[in-house]
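ok posting inputs for the 2-acetamido-2-deoxy-beta-D-glucopyranose job
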Amino acid sequence: MLRETTMEPWIRAVFLVMVLFPALAEAKVRHYNFKVVMKNYTKLCSTKPIATVNGKFPGPTLRAREGDNVLVKVINDVSYNVTIHWHGIRQLRTGWSDGPAYIAQCPIQPGQSYLYNFSIIGQRGTLFWHAHISWLRATMHGAIVILPKKGTPYPFPQPVKEKIIVLAEWWKADTEAVINQGTLSGMPPNVSDAHTMNGYTGPIRNCSISSQGTYTLHVEHNKTYLLRIINAAINDEIFFRIAGHKFTVVEVDASYTKPFVTDTIYIAPGQTTNALLKADQSPSKKYLIGMSSFMDAPSVAVDNTTNYGLLRYNGGPLGSRLVLTTMPPINATKAQLNFSNALRSLNSKKYPAQVPLTIDHSLLFTTGVGVNPCATCLNGSKLVGNINNVTFVMPSIALLQAYYYNISGVFTDDFPSKPPTNFDYTIANYTGGLATMNGTKVYRLSYNATVQVVLQDTSIIAPESHPLHLHGTNFFVVGMGTGNYNATKDFKNFNLVDPVERNTIDVPTGGWTAIRFRADNPGVWFMHCHLEVHTSWGLKMAFLIENGDGPNKSIMPPPKDLPKC
Ligand SMILES: *[C@@H]1O[C@H](CO)[C@@H](O)[C@H](O)[C@H]1NC(C)=O
Ligand SMILES: *[C@@H]1O[C@H](CO)[C@@H](O)[C@H](O)[C@H]1NC(C)=O
Ligand SMILES: *[C@@H]1O[C@H](CO)[C@@H](O)[C@H](O)[C@H]1NC(C)=O
Ligand SMILES: *[C@@H]1O[C@H](CO)[C@@H](O)[C@H](O)[C@H]1NC(C)=O
Ligand SMILES: *[C@@H]1O[C@H](CO)[C@@H](O)[C@H](O)[C@H]1NC(C)=O
Ligand SMILES: *[C@@H]1O[C@H](CO)[C@@H](O)[C@H](O)[C@H]1NC(C)=O
Ligand SMILES: *[C@@H]1O[C@H](CO)[C@@H](O)[C@H](O)[C@H]1NC(C)=O
Ligand SMILES: *[C@@H]1O[C@H](CO)[C@@H](O)[C@H](O)[C@H]1NC(C)=O
Ligand SMILES: *[C@@H]1O[C@H](CO)[C@@H](O)[C@H](O)[C@H]1NC(C)=O
Ligand SMILES: *[C@@H]1O[C@H](CO)[C@@H](O)[C@H](O)[C@H]1NC(C)=O
Ligand SMILES: *[C@@H]1O[C@H](CO)[C@@H](O)[C@H](O)[C@H]1NC(C)=O
Ligand SMILES: *[C@@H]1O[C@H](CO)[C@@H](O)[C@H](O)[C@H]1NC(C)=O
Ligand SMILES: [Cu+2]
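and the output
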């Protein structure tokens, strides 16, 4: 045993830190094994094999505490290429563990494995993991629950229990066949056949109604629950309600918010919402839980089925009366915007909103769709997505690898800071060209630069709500509006005090959203629409954040088992 007097100064420092800050000493290494296997599932009266993690749908929950080091060994036992993304985890200097195929890493090929190794720094709340290649995330996703450090309470009343609610979509067909058919035809892929709530499709038409198919939330009267709601859907933005009950939203995308009360939760794919639910209604009744799509672009097809679950009080009579809920209309733009605009950062002393107040890069990105020629497609053309009129072309070597090892010819760093042409982005009767440019372009940022991006929807083909997701860093949503962003007028109304901090935000239909972030995480970070149909079409780009001075401001070296292309 070392006596204190003989301790090396650095050992003493570590020892003191451990004594003074027990929370640090609590940091653990959490080991997980994710085995990717096919498994037969029966939904909507049809059985099909799906790619799963550990045979589960939704997949296993990953639990950790703020400060923990997480090690997930992913073993690929299926015939698809696979990668996993830890959606919303910042991956400080560990971009190798971020997951998007051909951006952060090459795929884990059949029979191979890869150890994802990351630490959870400065984050607590609900996030989720999902496959990040093709459409495999339809069936490969699950919750990430990050508890605060030991001894650190929530900044809201302690719930008696926590319930995870994973919302997703189900296709009767194989989802890889669905997107492949879409890609070959150049047309939109088929919409899903049902929505799922923790894997249940609910009492859906054309199929026997069975109580086993309905999600049930059991509660005790007068107790408060923390719902961890995750939208893991492929393409559908979702409204969520529980008859007779109200929610108090306290966190989104693992960032605390000022509590606000609502009867409708709006949640886009890629977003997570924590809400307190007080079981304060009559326990002798049971209550419908509703989940339905939001889509305010009339020409865009969407899964319009509503899935219902049940909230039941423990001890409630079996034959209790059912309390119904009506869902907002599918085109309830107001309900979407009211929810989004009500969110504010908690911005307390302990959890301050560190909004960049000066901006080094002021960017204007249009997001939308277009049409390019395609000789083999159905109409001789195909739908494409784009940012600033650039349709992203997937490279065959991961961008991060190409950057780190200086492999030329994989990407260029000339992603435009503004649209190539200045036009009326949201005019109803756009008559300009529908074609886009192609490219594998990144936007380069020096370490610690501050960035503002105004994301501007376009009405080319159809204006549509796009939930944009940024990897590697959260951003602050400083403004949102309809029509074209006006740099002289709209800028004055930005919220630079307590804007919500998140990783996924809608560019509203025919409108704009302004975000700000600090480029303090060196690496290559994907930004893309989280409607997988649009990502597949090329509505995506990447930021390249250079290293700062010294190893603590530089990306770590790649792990030895990093998959090769
Ligand atoms: C799924 O079921 C089919 C038909 O019963 C069977 O042939 C197949 O092996 C099963 N697949 C898996 C992964 O269990
Ligand atoms: C995980 O990465 C850290 C560096 O961030 C390294 O020190 C550690 O050895 C790695 N763990 C494993 C099991 O490879
Ligand atoms: C898509 O829907 C069409 C029309 O219902 C159907 O013919 C086709 O087989 C579907 N595609 C897939 C991959 O299921
Ligand atoms: C629940 O709260 C109400 C009002 O505060 C009270 O009347 C009732 O007895 C409580 N029920 C239970 C089961 O605690
Ligand atoms: C739902 O969408 C289907 C096509 O996907 C359409 O046939 C049906 O009319 C729609 N239902 C409603 C209520 O809009
Ligand atoms: C929503 O759709 C309905 C039916 O198509 C239409 O009557 C209504 O005007 C639309 N509402 C909005 C706000 O666009
Ligand atoms: C497009 O609509 C605007 C009004 O929004 C109108 O002034 C203009 O004439 C229209 N242009 C065409 C080509 O129809
Ligand atoms: C996008 O680029 C294509 C190809 O250069 C061009 O034809 C089209 O007009 C551009 N569209 C816009 C909106 O800038
Ligand atoms: C972009 O690629 C498509 C094929 O995917 C091609 O038809 C089109 O001409 C290309 N556009 C430009 C501007 O090169
Ligand atoms: C980043 O820049 C800010 C000033 O904009 C400075 O206060 C901060 O120390 C810098 N952070 C790092 C890690 O260099
Ligand atoms: C932007 O707003 C300013 C101030 O309200 C106004 O003068 C200007 O005309 C607007 N620009 C456009 C393109 O609408
Ligand atoms: C799997 O990934 C490797 C490496 O990028 C690639 O060569 C191969 O074509 C991919 N296989 C499939 C089925 O996409
Ligand atoms: Cu989109």
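notes: Residues 173, 177-178, 181, 190 surround 2-acetamido-2-deoxy-beta-D-glucopyranose (ligand 3) (CB under 6 Å). Residues 9-20 form the longest helix (12 residues).
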